[in-house]
Amino acid sequence: MSQFEDRERAFEAKFARDEEMQFRIIARRNRLLGQWAAIKMGLTEAEADSYAKDVVRADFEEAGDEDVIRKLLGDLTSAGIDCDEEQIREALSHKAVEARRQIIEQTN
């Protein structure tokens, strides 16, 4: 096996690890975001856990964060919570940092 093939395999392995890490961070972020919204809506702990899982599943509808934002905005508005897209995007940003920290701590 040549040095080039070894290097290529190393890059491929790193890419796969990075992609898996990013997927885990986004899923954790969406779960945390769902829990944040559930608290705002006054859901019970069991309902909040179920809702957080729904938010994670909502992210699979389309690429990007728009599907999650749309779900949260619709659900919060339906629950009579005064919240706009900007607040959700801000929470999304904060939860992404928190999710990254949690995943890194978990892997160490």
Q: How many domains in all?
A: 1
What characteristic shape results from the CA principal axes? elongated
> How much of the sequence is in beta strands?
under 5%
Uncertain runs with pLDDT below 50, 5 residues or more? none
CATH homologous superfamily title: Domain of unknown function DUF1476
Structural class: mainly alpha
Order of helices and strands: HHHH
How would you sum up the major sheet?
A: none
Extended strand count = 0
CATH topology: the name is: Major Prion Protein
Classified by CATH, the class is Mainly Alpha
Helical content (DSSP H or I, runs of 4+):
over 70%
N-to-C span: 32 Å
How are the secondary structure elements laid out?
Layout: H1 3-41, H2 45-58, H3 66-78, H4 85-107
In short:
This protein is 82% helix and 0% strand.
Describe the structure.
The protein is mainly α. The chain has a single domain, classed as Major Prion Protein. Helix content is 82%, strand content 0%. Helix 1 (3-41) packs across helix 2 (45-58). It is elongated and about 65 Å long. The mean pLDDT is 91.
Task: Provide key terms for this protein.
108 residues; single chain; elongated; mainly alpha; Major Prion Protein
